[in-house]
Specification:
Number of helices of chain B: 3
Number of helices of chain A: 18
Largest sheet of chain A: 9 strands, mixed
Strand content of chain B: 5-15%
Structural class of chain A: alpha+beta
Shape of chain B: flat
Strand order of the largest sheet of chain B: 2-3
CATH architecture of one domain in chain B: Orthogonal Bundle
Helix content of chain A: 25-40%
CATH topology of one domain in chain B: Histone, subunit A
Bound molecules: zinc ion
Oligomer: heterodimer
Strand order of the largest sheet of chain A: 3-6-7-10-1-11-12-13-14
Radius of gyration of chain A: 31 Å
Shape of chain A: elongated
Largest interface: A-B, 59 and 36 residues
Structural class of chain B: alpha+beta
């Protein structure tokens, strides 16, 4: 579907030998407010076209916008979470353009007086080192309407006869977070870009300001990239940092972590091919194509002047007082990265174990399981082992599977308690888990109903051991002679005798004691 | 800088306002008067004067995040020259989405 002539690229290794990449990222996040940024229209997704509209978001004459208080608070909280300074005086501006996705002929945004400036975010890379991303600004704006292009052969914009516009999305609050140029990443630029977007998503999620679903477009990234000649081996050295930045391209709407990484990598190889030939990189918008992994030229970048920004006269300035800012600061959750570090050390997980937990999206679940009384080892073993295995057999992710089957952290803690107290052994506990997953009730109820309980009566265990030794005189002799490994066969028979409800460790102890081999 | 008749015609087409030849002439005259007036204001000595975007000393006017009924789709589309599938029909767009 992407029909375009392939542009020449240099190999990634060659590109990095000759050039030093510098990135910049602009991330748009849709806030999860109930109403739009400047009017009381609902933001609910999936409504019939043009049913969440009013004179304000349709730009009808005489309408008066008023800013959403949660929108402003969310913007300030995002700014604080990124260690930004919150501007004591901030205004909205009109970004004028003639394009029917905004019926007003302008987008209400912020220009030279954004709400938050000069922050930073330290992002952890795969090898455990950190890269500091400097944040230039975070500002408030609104989303545009949705256009449907009809009449073209492909349904895409090219060749379309006309477009149909739905303004339900027009006016939904957006926060745009803009980094400063990110130098010094060298060959790790793609990884840094991905790690930044991922860390930013974690922060936004922890703040509860957005559902931050990249695949659904509630968080989207624009990737700016430029190359400059490489003058030193060290990308972070003074000589290299002093080289002026090259011309940048801006790749729009990259909608997954992996695509961010791929887009940076591709643009590095494309710029390098142009520059290596002595050519000039165009300052332009590029479009990312997920299917082919390349970018193609969009429109040439308009200068800021073309938008004729001016202060929005219908909205009064936002001037957060220090008290307002401090009250909002007090609502900030523990930063996700710090929280992960704290939990990892409390739980005693190795780095790799912790990464598996995080990647499986099980951090909260394990935290709840542990606080419900399970040991951290058992919590990880159950969720990442037994439950994850069953979930993947059903091709579901663990949390969705658990939700569907109604198994909770409290259940797992209870199950762990039954094992720890000696009522169940591991194999019985797995049967109980199956019962819980099948909706038979709590672990205790399942164990009761299925009659699962280790034999606690030492007399019964001893009788079984005696019987098995008597019936296997040959094996017993070997054990007496010191072949302790042979005890396994007898333990198996004891278990069988007691229908699997014996404590295997106890049985072993008893067998060895009776045969004088302990 | 003076406005030309072509400028007015260009702006009218951008704003999708259909102007007759006579209206173009009239708007050229009226817009020129406005621009001249603004040019006069621009001569005012403003050194050391803070630009003012809002005449009222108000800040932090916000609205609670509570949905309010807006327009029905029918009302919303009542002013549209053309519509299709309950959406505003607009001429084809050249730039990409
Ligand atoms: Zn509205």
């Amino acid at each position: 579907m992407s029909s375009h002539a392939a542009e020449p690229v240099l190999s990634y290794e060659e590109a990095l030998e000759q050039f030093d990449p510098v990135m910049g990222l602009e991330v748009h996040v849709e806030l999860g407010t109930r109403t739009k940024m400047f009017c009381g229209c609902s933001t609910q997704f999936g409504a019939p076209p043009n049913t969440h509209v009013c004179p304000v978001c349709l730009g009808l004459p005489g309408a008066l916008p008023v800013v959403n208080e949660i929108g402003v608070q969310s913007a300030i909280r995002i700014g604080l979470a990124l260690d930004c300074k919150i501007a004591p005086w901030s205004r909205f501006a009109r970004k004028n353009y003639f394009y029917p996705d905004m019926p007003k002929n302008f987008q209400t945004s912020q220009y030279d007086e954004p709400i938050a400036v000069d922050g930073h975010l330290d992002v952890e890379l795969e090898d455990g080192t950190y890269y500091r991303v400097e944040i230039e600004r975070a500002h408030m704006e609104e989303d545009t309407g949705k256009s449907l292009h009809v009449g073209g052969a492909t349904g895409r914009i090219h060749g379309a006869d006309h477009s149909l516009v739905d303004y339900n999305r027009a006016g939904i609050p957006l926060i745009e977070i803009v980094t400063k140029p990110m130098p010094g990443a060298g060959a790790r630029a793609p990884e840094v870009a991905r790690a930044y977007v991922s860390a930013l998503r974690d922060i936004l999620k922890s703040l509860g300001v957005s559902d931050v679903k990249m695949e659904e477009g509630s968080m989207r990234a624009d990737v700016n990239l430029s190359l400059r000649p490489k003058v030193a081996a060290d990308a972070t050295g003074e000589a290299q940092l002093a080289v002026p930045l090259g011309t940048r391209s801006e790749t729009k709407n990259v909608n997954s972590f992996r695509s961010v990484e791929r887009a940076v990598r591709y643009e590095i190889t494309r710029h390098a091919a142009v520059l290596a030939e002595g050519g000039r990189v165009l300052q332009e918008t590029r479009h990312w194509h997920e299917d082919t992994g390349v970018t193609t030229s969009g429109r040439e970048k308009s200068d800021a002047d073309d938008y004729r920004y001016f202060p929005e006269p219908d909205l009064v300035p936002v001037a957060p007082t220090p008290e307002m800012v401090e009250a909002l600061r007090a609502t900030l959750p523990e930063p996700p990265a710090a929280r992960r570090k704290r939990l990892q050390s409390a739980w005693g997980y190795a780095d790799l174990e912790m990464r598996d937990v995080v990647n499986a999206g099980l951090l909260e679940v394990i935290e709840e399981t542990v606080s419900a009384g399970a040991s951290s080892t058992a919590a990880r073993k159950w969720w990442l082992g037994e439950i994850a295995r069953r979930a993947s057999a059903d091709a579901m992710d663990v949390t969705a599977y658990a939700a569907e089957r109604g198994v909770t952290p409290a259940h797992i803690a209870e199950l762990d308690g039954l094992v720890a107290s000696g009522r169940l052994n591991d194999s019985m506990a797995r049967q109980v888990l199956d019962g819980v997953l099948d909706g038979e009730g709590t672990p205790t109820a399942v164990a009761d109903a299925r009659g699962l309980e280790l034999v606690q009566d030492d007399g019964a265990l001893e009788a079984a051991v005696d019987a098995v030794i008597a019936a296997n005189a040959g094996v017993a002799d070997k054990i007496r002679e010191g072949k302790v490994a042979a005890a396994g066969a007898l333990i198996g028979q004891v278990m069988k005798e007691l229908k699997g409800q014996a404590d295997a460790a106890k049985a072993r102890e008893l067998i060895l004691a009776k045969l004088g081999a302990s | 800088m003076s406005l030309t008749r072509d400028d007015v015609a260009h702006l009218a087409s951008l704003a999708r306002i259909d102007l007759s030849e006579a209206e173009l002439d009239r708007m050229l005259g009226e817009l020129t008067v406005i621009l001249d007036a603004v040019a006069l204001v621009q001569q005012a000595p403003t050194d050391g004067v803070e630009p003012m975007s809002h005449p009222l000393p108000l800040t932090n006017v916000t609205r609670p995040d509570v949905p309010r009924p807006g327009l029905t789709a029918e009302e919303a589309l009542s002013g549209a020259p053309e519509q299709e599938q309950q959406r505003f029909l607009v001429p084809r767009i050249l730039a990409e989405d």
